[in-house]
Design brief:
Oligomer: single chain
Number of helices: 9
Keywords: Transferase
Radius of gyration: 18 Å
Distance between the termini: 45 Å
Largest sheet: 4 strands, mixed
CATH architecture: Up-down Bundle
Structural class: mainly alpha
Order of helices and strands: EHEHEEHHHHHHH
CATH class: Mainly Alpha
Number of strands: 4
Domain GST N-terminal: 2-89
Mean pLDDT: 93
Strand order of the largest sheet: 2-1-3-4
Organism: Pandoraea communis
Domain GST C-terminal: 91-245
Low-confidence stretches: none
GO molecular function, one term: glutathione transferase activity
C-alpha cells in the first residue's frame, strides 16, 4: 500500500499532523508537492485536487491518496490511518474518543490561524495587524487556557493510561497535542513560558512524544520543515504577550 500525501510545499501546516503519524510508526509515504519528478510538485497537487472527473475531490490540502481514493481533512485522514498504523485503540469507543480529541485540537489550530488572520485568509497579515492584536490577546488570555485546561483534565482523569490521552497507548491525538504545543512555543514564546508549570501533564505528554526514537530522529532530519511565518503557527513579536498561565 502506497500513501501519497499532498500538502503545500515548504509548510508544516495541517499536513504536519499527518506526517507525524507516518514518522512515529516508521511508515513509508510520498510527499507529492515536495517532489520534483514529473507529476509531482505543485502542478501534481493542483491537478489532482482540481481534476474535473474526480467524484470525491478534497476541498483543500492536506489530502491523502491511497490507490484510487482521495481522503481529505486532517482529522478524517488520521481517523483512517489510526487503525492501520496502530495509533488508536481497537474498540469503536476508543476510535470515536480519539477522533473527538483530534477534532478539538483542530478547533484550536483554527483559532491559532485566525489570531494572525482575523479578517480574511486571503489578506496579508500587514493588512489586519490591528485586528490581529485584539484577536491574539483573546487567544492568549482566554482561549489557550480553556483548551489546555481541558486536555490537562483528560490526562488527569486518564492517569491510568500511562500519560497518554486514551487507553494506555500513544494515539495520533497525542502526536497532535505535541505538535500544537511545539507550534505555540514558536509563535508565542513569551506567552508559553509558564506552560509546563501550569499544565504539567500536557507538558509530560509532549515530552514523551519528543523522546520517541523515531520522532526524535525526525525532528533532527531535513524532512521536518521548520516553522516559518507562512504557516499556521507564526511568530510576530508584537503579538506575543505574557499569559495567565
Amino acid at each position: 500500500m502506497t500513501f501519497e500525501l499532498f500538502y503545500w510545499p515548504g509548510l508544516q501546516g495541517r499536513g504536519e499532523f499527518v506526517r507525524l503519524a507516518f514518522e512515529a510508526t516508521g511508515t513509508p509515504y510520498v510527499e507529492i508537492a515536495q517532489g520534483e519528478p514529473p507529476g509531482q510538485g505543485m502542478d501534481g497537487l493542483l491537478r489532482t485536487m482540481d481534476d474535473p472527473l474526480c467524484t470525491d475531490p478534497p476541498f483543500a490540502p492536506p489530502f491523502l491518496r491511497v490507490g484510487d481514493e482521495l481522503i481529505g481533512q486532517t482529522a478524517n485522514i488520521l481517523a483512517y490511518l489510526g487503525p492501520l498504523l496502530g495509533l488508536v485503540g481497537e474498540s469503536p469507543r476508543a476510535r470515536r474518543w480519539v477522533n473527538q480529541l483530534q477534532l478539538t485540537l483542530a478547533d484550536l489550530v483554527a483559532e491559532v490561524h485566525d489570531a494572525h488572520h482575523p479578517i480574511a485568509g486571503r489578506l496579508y497579515y500587514s493588512n489586519q495587524r490591528t485586528e490581529a492584536r485584539k484577536r491574539t490577546a483573546e487567544l492568549i488570555d482566554y482561549r489557550l487556557p480553556k483548551f489546555f485546561e481541558y486536555f490537562e483534565r483528560v490526562l488527569t482523569n486518564n492517569f491510568h493510561a500511562g500519560g497518554w490521552l486514551s487507553e494506555g497507548e500513544m494515539s495520533y491525538a497525542d502526536l497532535s497535542l505535541f505538535q500544537v504545543v511545539e507550534g505555540l512555543r514558536y509563535a508565542f514564546p513569551r506567552a508559553m513560558s509558564g506552560f509546563a508549570r501550569a499544565f504539567p501533564r500536557c507538558q509530560a505528554t509532549h515530552d514523551a512524544v519528543a523522546r520517541m526514537p523515531r520522532i526524535a530522529a525526525y525532528l533532527k532530519s531535513p524532512r521536518r520543515i521548520a516553522f516559518n511565518t507562512t504557516g499556521i503557527f507564526r511568530h510576530y513579536k508584537e503579538l506575543d504577550r505574557a499569559s495567565p498561565f
